[in-house]
Amino acid sequence: MKAALVGNPNAGKTSVFNLLTGLNQKVGNYPGITVDKKWGHFNYQGTDVELLDLPGLYSIYPKSQDEEVVFQVLRQKDHRDHPDLVIVVMDATNLERNLFLATQILDLGIPTLLIANMIDLMDKDQVGVNLEKLSELLGGVPLVPFNARTGQDLALLKSALLEVPLEVMPSPHTQEFMNLEEWNTGRQEEAALGEARYKRIRQILSFCQPLPRKRSVRHQKWDQILTHPVWGYLIFLSLLALIFQTIFAWSEVPMNLIDTVFLTLSQWTQATLPNGPLTDLISQGLIPGLGGVMIFIPQIALLFGFIFVLEETGYMARVVFITDRLMRPFGLNGRSIVPLISGVACAIPAVMATRTIDHWKERLITIMVVPLMSCSARLPVYTLLIALVVPDVSWGIFNLKGMVLMALYLVGFVAALFSALLFKWILKTKEKSFLVMELPDYKTPRWSNLGITMLEKCKIFVWEAGKVILAISVILWILASYGPGDQMASAIAKIPVPTESAQQADYQQQVKSVALEHSYIGIAGKWIEPAIKPLGYNWQIGISLITSFVAREVFVGSMATIYSVGETFENDQTLLERMSHQRNGLGKPVYTLASGISLMLFYAFAMQCMSTLAVVRRETKSWKWPLIQLVYMTALAYISALIAFNLLN
Amino acid sequence: MTLDQVSNSSKSYIVRQIKKGPLTTKLIDMGLFPGKEIRLLFKAPFGDPIAIDVQGYTLSLRREEAALISIE
After folding, report:
1. Alpha helix locations (H) across A88-130?
2. A218 touches chain B (CB under 8 A)
3. What residues of chain B have any CB closer than 8 angstroms to a CB in chain A?
């Protein structure tokens, strides 16, 4: 049997879904649009039920992509996801508005089961709705009280589900949905129909709800603090600081672990399998590529864990409420603030977190500018370069090195805001920006849902973006390991093979360095040298810029490989010392304040992360936007690096 | 008067009419139909958006949207 779950946001639909299906969940996409499709299975007394979790919404009149999906699935009998019956989850403490959607579904003429969720809160409010009477007045529709918070009486819910009669009498109002083929016309007619529907609901409720609920204003104290002009922002900023601290602290160990596991696996494969190009491909291309996908999982899981808690408690809606006015001038809205700031950790979960922005243009702008926020992968690059070129000067508690680092973060944020402004001017849309948002009651999060949400986000990333990331990293590996003709082999042959085993390690280092130099990427790095010379870079940096496309922090590793040989090569020199001794053709140092700042600005702005591009493609459903992002960010990086180099040089 | 002009949070108002436009249906869907009793709860810093009590739940909307709602 196929069933579909429908309900208002915050009515507890996801909890019901999780209770029914547990871990038997899948996520995917509706073809061609950016709406996640979630479905699961459960078996009750021999009947297998496939349960589709439709997006939360207030009305099925299609005004957004989410609503469009629900409307199509429910109305078109031949839709491949069309269910045999619909379960409508209602918030029992606010039946009037929840019945608006519920009666629309009933009028569609699909077998329906109504769930009055949060029945415990309804009892607490002493609203005292006569649910039997309500069911009767709605035409004998099965209606079960439920408490998704505790999951009590789940078996009753399941058996009620199987008892829903699959034959329904056509509702006298079914006509409303049959006539309107073109939904973009007749908007005013819709408004009139909505009014009439509410009148009908009020009439029904007047028979079964003796005291209409006066809002008990349960949490106004909290609202006063959390939306306060001073405290509101202070609390939000401190919470963010705490969250990022935790993400960095908690993700470090699992990330190192993933790194080690894949490194070991790679070495093991190399040692076990027979030598040859296939083994190299597996051990050096495929396995590190997989590792490169998995390495993001701790940050994605943690960030979405925190976002889940913020959403579930009801706090996120307050954040949107107090930041909306500030973000609006930049073509963003209150929902953009969390993705934008999450970009400081990693652009990947940040881009995935833009799902909550229902206005397409504002969502797109947020996606486009998020990667300008300095993510954690840029930090190793900044640290290396700052140590290399920024003089160690202090004024009181202010250290120049620290201030440069702070300035880089700031410059990323400012660039994000101004790029947003630019996109606001360029992108045209018919949709009007609006904010009509429920501020849900504060609740303690349902922890059982936390793990499921984190798992779901990681699955989406691994299955949908992971494939592209893996493919690109394998290609990049091939380009970095092979070169045209026998250039690479002959260059390696020129290195004197050491006789003593003590020098074996040095020899291996030199081979690596020469191999990279003569690979396709090495050649490309040299080839772009004329283009990057005005920025103060040489071909060594060119190579590192290209290899950084795997992940920005690879810059440090590439630099280490390239500079493992050189004229001033000495064994015990650190990478930092080697880099500081580099001279250009005129005998001047390569890494000066000017070229260093120029390089740091380049890293701050350039789109050098294929994983982000893969996620942006997934979220926008086309290569168009990631390509635009690649071009505009690289252009911004190039121009600002050029200006900086020429000003400082 | 319209909802965006309200500054008194102790007084209740009745929704009279929603101005015709692209948001009419959305606002009605959210329960702001003529005859509904509403009350201002609080405002965000800078006075925008605002939060109102829609008899049963709290709704936030921008001043721009509040201006579409005539009340009495």
Report:
1. 95-107, 119-125
2. no
3. 18, 20, 22-31, 33-34, 36, 41-42, 44-46, 48-49, 51, 53-62, 64-65
